[in-house]
Amino acid sequence: MSHKQPDYYRILGVPNQASLEAIQIAYRQAKEAVADGSKSDRQLIETAYEVLSDADRRAVYDELLNEAQQSDLQISLDVSRDTLAISEQEQIVYALVKVMADRQQADQQNQRPLNLCFVIDRSTSMRGERLDRVKEAVTLLVEKLTPEDVVSLVSFSDRAEIVAAATDNSNIRLLRSRIDTISASGSTEIHQGMMAGNQELSTVSLGHYNNHLILLTDGHTYGDEEKCLKLAQTMAAKGIGISAFGIGTEWNDNFLDALVSASGGRSDFIETPEQVLQQLQERIQGLGTVHAKNVRLINQASSAATVSYGFKVAPFTQPLELGGSQIKLGDLEGRAPLSFLLEIRIAPQPREARIRLPINLIADLPGAAGTNLEKKYQTAAQFLVLSEPAQPKTPSPLLTKAVRIMTLYRMNEKAWADVQAGNLNQATRRMRYLTTRLLESGETNLAHQAQMEADHLQRMGTISIEGRKAIKYGTRALIDKTLRLDLDEDLS
Fold first, then answer.
1. Is the Cβ–Cβ distance between 252 and 222 less than 8 Å?
2. Positions in the chain short of pLDDT 70
């Protein structure tokens, strides 16, 4: 198909996945809009409708259009329903968006070396097995990196120490000996460690590397949260990603979520020291191959449709921060897709209407000589509001699973919000309902934890720190475990 071939979907104003009913309505509206227009415009609309309303002709056209529009990134969109009934009440729909690198181009993608900085909490509370396991894990990971990768190590308590300045990974013996010198003392001031980590990462030409800071901590930082968040934004603007891992139960999970959100990074819970190596291995696995950096979704609401909640489901699970004009999604890395789930609130619709919510993405594609090329990608979620809608389609199994598990995660978060607001009876009801839902899903260990927290709430008027983190990150892990294999196959 020539690049001059008309895009019939764009001519009728419908997305590529539009139903026949949506195409028919769009055709009637487009025909009315150009009733007094030129003959060529009217003919173009007629041709677009003839092709798209015929299943066989549309299939051939879609195949040719796909070949002509082959791009570096492929975007798939799956909605829970695309037709809604007229209603005076707000309605909720869900959209699962999947972004993948073009497979042929992905195979040709040249890996950039890593520029990696480990920022390790060495405060007094890390003494013993926690710090020992972190040192062992970092040593093993450094040994698996390539000689071209750049590695630096920072430890911190109430001040930071550059354990190993940024250097290529060719001298493993020296790095190992420097890691062994880390010992525990002092309190926790994360900003000190982050400043030193940013300094070391910035000693190289950032454009030639995939740059990442990995923070490991077991405690609350003291009075410098805002400084940390501002520094995270500065680092993200420079192309430095951040992942943060909390060890044990005494650290601030909301703070770590906020810390990584600026770069679309990952925060996670390391419940026992034995889990340190596995968690770090999983995080580093995809960092060497990045197909698109700093992917973000334009936060484009309308009076009819608004994104009210977002959750990243691949390559790792992470709630999305919706504040601001852009929603940071992170990098498209490794072989995994970048997938996220959106909750969309549809305002009351008293009459028939067509609602279109643009899904506009921006990404920085790695180019030659350390440059990045900003590119934009567009699709849309479209919904028809009808007085007598047809039987709604059955949502895909993948979307159904994603919504179900995300609901479990949010139920725990809402229970915690109720506790903080003093609504203890509501919090207890939510926790007992969560227990039932987890049992129905076959997650007996998490259900047992939720039941214990419901009982703890009733007796003590709060949720335990241990239980809150176990359920919060347990339900996140459940999303990852349940959806990972499906995401590799579905919507591709």
1. no
2. 1-5, 37, 66-71, 103-110, 367-371, 484-492
